[in-house]
Amino acid sequence: MKSRRDRRAVLGAALASAVVAASTAGMGYALSGPPQGTPPVSSAVMPSAPAAGGGTSQVTQTATAAATAQPSPVDRKALLASAMAGVPVEDGARLSAAVLDVAGGEQAVYGDGSFDTASIVKVDILAALLLQAQDAGRALTAGEKSYATAMIERSDNASATALWASIGRAAGLDAANKRFGLTGTHGSDGETWGLTQTTAADQLVLLQQVFGTDSLLDADSRGYLRGLMEGIVDGQRWGVSAAGGGAAGATGAAGTAWALKNGWLPRSATGLWDINSVGRVTVGGREFLVAVLSDGNSSQQRGISMVERAAEAAVGSFDRAA
């Protein structure tokens, strides 16, 4: 007959065997998959046993965070600044640029100083005239249209002076710009419309009034002004056009690759040049609104070269990875 001690030993061994068998059965389930009807668990992240006290395991927390994480927004301002850093700027010259991806709605501005408009103000003058005509419920007269065509397509200064007077000079321009949403543009005194002060950011706002649908200008006014900016004469097709097919005016998926207005002005006091360009360019089927402003250039050609490089860099910044 077995002693009491022997019976306890046999009973303990039997209990140990049962525990091992149960444990081995659990491992077999985990490796072969869950029972039928239970959603499968990704093989990339196997769940761990719950932490003591019912807490969530570290692996589960990581998987949950990854599932709910959102893509980081692209810092367009930083990308534009990085792109503009590669544009050569002469000592003493200044440069500012703004760009908008029309389809995506993203935009960025580099530099925030004020610049002389030179002849890019002619777009603003015509926009103000068209807004005033809409308010009066009338179309432009034949004379106004003749001035407008010469002012935009050939950058004729006498025509600009005539329409500057028609809109009420600086007061009329400023009143229209307030309605358009420009906050850093101020008309120049007297007849010196080319010394109107503006910013690249404001020029982007004005371009949206011309090329966008959320505009105070009606469809006819926008189409008229756009058409003139697409008809710039040979010799003045430089500037932002460099980012959308160059001076040849190549066509893309959205039509004419560019519509622009340039400004150039030698300052009599310093002999240095203001060189500006604003407009719309089409690159690979994508439309961009671009404004590039500069001053302090030693020559017209050096300023044009810098502005074109800046326009290319501004549009190219939208193809850079975040």
Description of the structure:
It is built from ten helices and nine strands. With 322 residues, it is an alpha+beta fold. The model is unreliable at 1-5, 7-56 and 248-255 (pLDDT under 50).
Strand content: 15-25%
**Number of helical stretches of at least 4 residues:** 10
The SS-based structural class is: alpha+beta
Percentage of residues assigned to helices: 40-55%
The mean pLDDT is 83
| Separation, N- and C-terminal Cα atoms | 83 Å
Q: Can you list the strand order of the major beta sheet? A: 2-1-9-8-7
* Main pleated sheet: 5 strands, antiparallel
The H/E string reads HHHEEEHHHHEHHEEEEEH
| Number of E-type strands | 9
**Overall morphology:** globular
Low-confidence parts lasting 5 or more residues at pLDDT below 50? 1-5, 7-56, 248-255
Radius of gyration: 34 Å
Task: Please outline what is shown here.
By secondary structure, this protein is of the alpha+beta class. The protein contains ten helices and nine strands.
Provide the descriptors you would attach to this structure in a database record.
five-stranded antiparallel β-sheet, two-stranded antiparallel ribbon, disordered N terminus, 9 strands, alpha+beta, 10 helices, 322 residues, globular
What secondary-structure arrangement, pairings included, does this model have?
Elements: H1 4-32, H2 58-68, H3 76-84, E1 94-101, E2 107-110, E3 115-116, H4 121-136, H5 142-153, H6 157-167, H7 169-180, E4 197-198, H8 200-211, H9 219-229, E5 251-252, E6 255-256, E7 258-266, E8 273-283, E9 286-295, H10 300-316
